[in-house]
Predict the 3D structure of the following.
Amino acid sequence: MTFWRFLTAIIFVYILMLGLRIILSWFQGSVYGRPWELLVRLTEPYLSLFRRLRFLRRGTIDFTPIAAILTLVVILQVIYLIGETGKISLGLFLGIVAGALWAAVRFLLVLFLVMAVLRAILGAVANMRDSRLIGALGYMIEPAVSLVRRIFPARQTLSERQYLYLTIVFLLVLWLLGLYLVPRLVAFLNNLPI
């Protein structure tokens, strides 16, 4: 039992190190010095495994850190379950994976939804139309808007604002559907007899 707790603690600390590296990389002045170099040396071998998966990078958005942390969260939950119960089944493992995937997708849905709503509000303010913030928000939500354009091709040309509103509705519906369906799926998987 102590071994499983020790292993859980090590993985948890490593997840924190990955999160710290990701957050610090957003700030230019913090990525210098020996502590940063040590953090990079400890986390880079693991992160580089996920950088090989090209589908995790879409334009300027890099999902490899999320995939790396998500994988460790699944491993952490499996180890915790084995440590607590002494066993794991295929159904429980699939339930853990489905729950972890939904947590990542839910985070991204909420992130894109908040940015899209903020973009819509700022775009409605007349003197804010040419602001850098609006441009940055538009650039960041472009992957979601592009997805909506592909899923819902318009028979007549829709304006950028109409596609933004459609994207907000789409993200909100996906989020609400996930909140309803995923817990039921996880419960079903957890109760599988295998």
Q: What stands out?
A: The longest strand covers residues 57-58. The CA atoms of residues 8 and 76 lie 6 Å apart. The chain is about 75% helix and 0% strand.
